Amino acid sequence: MIELSKGIELDFEKAMPELVAAMLGMGWNVNKDDSTDTTEDDFDLDSSVFMLDKSGKLPDKHHVVYYNNLKSPDSEVCIEHMGDNLTGAGEGDDEVILFDLRKVPDYIHKLVITVTIHRAQKRNQNFGMVEDAFLRVVNVSSKEEVLRFDLDEEFTLETSVILTEIYRTDTGWAIKALAEGVDGGLDELVSKYTA
After folding, report:
1. Contacts of 190 (CB under 8 A, 6+ apart)
2. Looking at residue 79, which CATH number applies to its domain?
3. Is residue 163 within 8 Å of residue 113, measured between CB atoms?
4. How far apart are CA 127 and CA 36, in angstroms?
5. Nearest alpha carbon to residue 2 among 131, 99, 136
6. CA-CA distance, 114 to 94, in Å (whole number)?
7. Which is more confidently placed, 44 or 5?
8. How does residue 124 score in pLDDT terms, banded at 50, 70 and 90?
9. What are the Cα distances from residue 159, in Å, to 13, 82, 175?
10. Dihedral sign of CA atoms 147, 181, 85, 47 in order
11. Which residues are CB-contacts of 12 (< 8 A; sequence separation ≥ 6)?
12. Tally of domains within the chain
């Protein structure tokens, strides 16, 4: 297994050429030492994938795969969100997204993976209250965890995080660990990537 850290880029073709279909799992816990009225049961993090074209923009709103749009708009369905976890309770993956890089349409050049806090402003929540967040990639063929990114960044008031981006190269695909905090939710991220 390869461990990523912020800023690290990895070429799939060189490091793991067999990786084409994968399960992307994300998990997190709520910082129980935080002195707020927030409980784990009402702390809802949501994972999303933004499918961007060559200019780094969304072709349209259907190219955001998230809890209200579980499948990519292409006929092959290259990305599928397996559903919303409302609490993050329990061990292991809290949300899962399946993707197959062989099926990604030619006009899509980048897949940006994000996590947002649902109703963060209303609930007075932010990523300073989250701990043990991670993203892992499991090879569907071998069922092995091949890549892991433990999000050990110190966030404070941010309510969204751009975790990683998977992008096309001359030889295939590569991944870059970002851990970029954003003040705002899903709407702000959509605006960021809208032409």
Report:
1. 58, 61, 64
2. 2.60.60.30
3. yes
4. 13
5. 136
6. 14
7. 5
8. confident
9. 33, 22, 23
10. negative
11. 19, 101, 172, 173, 174, 175
12. 1
Which domain range does residue 71 map to?
2-192
The residues that bridge with 98 in the sheet, in sequence order, are 23, 80
Other C-beta atoms within 10 Å of 146: how many?
Answer: 17
| Site of tokens 């067999």 | 18
Tell me, yes or no, if the pTM score tops 0.85: yes
In whole angstroms, what is the distance from residue 66 CA to residue 11 CA? 26
pLDDT at residue 85 greater than cutoff 80: no
Kind and range of the H or E element at 122? helix 120-123
Q: Which residues contact 140 (CB under 8 A, 6 or more apart)?
A: 21, 22, 23, 98
For residue 34, what is the enclosing H or E element? Answer: none
56-59 contacts: CB < 8 A, separation 24 or more?
56/109, 56/110, 56/193, 57/193, 57/194, 57/195, 58/190, 58/193, 58/194, 58/195, 59/107, 59/108
Element (H, E) at 59: none
Paired tokens of 27: 């998990």
